[in-house]
Amino acid sequence: EVAGLSLSTGGGDAVMDVENAYVVFTAYSSNKNTNQSNGSMTLNFTNSIVESNYKFEIGQTKAGYDAEKAPEINLNVTDSVFTLKNFFVNNHAKGTVAIDNSDFTATAFGNVGTFSAVNGSVVNFSLVNNALNDWVGKGGLNAGTMTVDASTLNIANKGATLEFYNVGEITLANGAVFTLDRLVNAQANNLTGSGNINTTFADMTGNITISGDSQLTVSTLFTNDGTITVDAGSTITAAAITNNGTITINAKGYTGDTIKVIDLSQDTKLTGVKLTNASNKYYLTYGEDGDVILNKSPEYIYVSSDYNSSTEGYGYDKFSNYDSAVAFANVII
Q1: Mind listing the pLDDT tens digit for each residue in 87-104?
Q2: Cα angle: 292, vertex 298, 304; to 5 degrees
Q3: 207, 206, 165, 203: which is closest to 182 by C-alpha?
Q4: Reduced to 3 states, what is the DSSP secondary structure of residue 325?
């Protein structure tokens, strides 16, 4: 058992290695970030089980100290199970959290530094109705860099109106899965009633990149005021998307068949989606419920067997152009 954890460095590199261990924190754990000599502090948990009922924080630089001279803080969790029944916060711009082939669970997640989950990791966070260092207030926040690579990130909602705000960078890659209830990919200076997000992170805009057969699923509310780029092999699933920003489907290198890239369950129209890096064989269409589909143009236009024109025979592309084929054909395959 560890009665909390407080680390400091005098400008050098402080390292704590924990291997093949069972660790229980019995108090709040944090760092003070008052050192002005740079340096670093690193916590490595490998092949271990870590549990705590208390908050675990990579803390922000204390008032009156230069954040640029604060030490780097690194938390590395590898081949381990890390379970916090309380807040987990990376509230330091020079804080780095790396989850590698591990299970990581906590409530009220916030990140302003660097956070990554790789190599089959499973990360579970919850949004709770509680202020988090005065800059989340209504749920959770990413104002740094988050990467989910070949791993799963779930953010459960413990309150009906809680939201996860992104004003930083989120990257989903190589079959990553990111599931949550309410997502706001935001422009920070447009937010109101959201703690100090709109002032502390003014002028920051959320950016989400999805590639490599990855999936983003938002079950209730999805607002995009920032930028979203999704490749043709990946999927966005949502009830509806309020799009005031930019959504781009990047079809670079895609040679497959027609595919649904954005799947919406409500009868809402999604507009403003752009297609880039597509060959002339591909184009976008919108379903009645707002779905966005990347279509592959057929090489031939076929008409049904009951089309009786003497000049346009069944099974051949004899129309002068695509529009006339669509206008007169009974079936297009």
Answers
A1: 888 888 788 999 999 999
A2: 105
A3: 165
A4: helix
Asked if residue 259 lies in contact with residue 240, where contact means CB atoms within 8 angstroms, the answer is no
CB-side neighbour CA atoms (13 Å) of 202: 2
Question: In whole angstroms, what is the distance from residue 11 CA to residue 69 CA?
Answer: 10
Helix (H) or strand (E) holding 328: helix 322-328
As a whole number of Å, the CA-based R_g of the chain is 25
pTM for this model (two decimals): 0.83
Summarised one tens digit per residue, pLDDT across range 205-244 is 999 999 999 999 999 889 999 999 999 999 999 999 999 9
Kind and range of the H or E run holding 31: strand 29-31
pLDDT value of residue 132:
46
| Dihedrals phi, psi of 173, to nearest 5 degrees | -145, 155
Rounded Cα gap, residues 317 and 301, in angstroms: 5
Residue among 89, 70, 75 at smallest CA distance from 133: 89
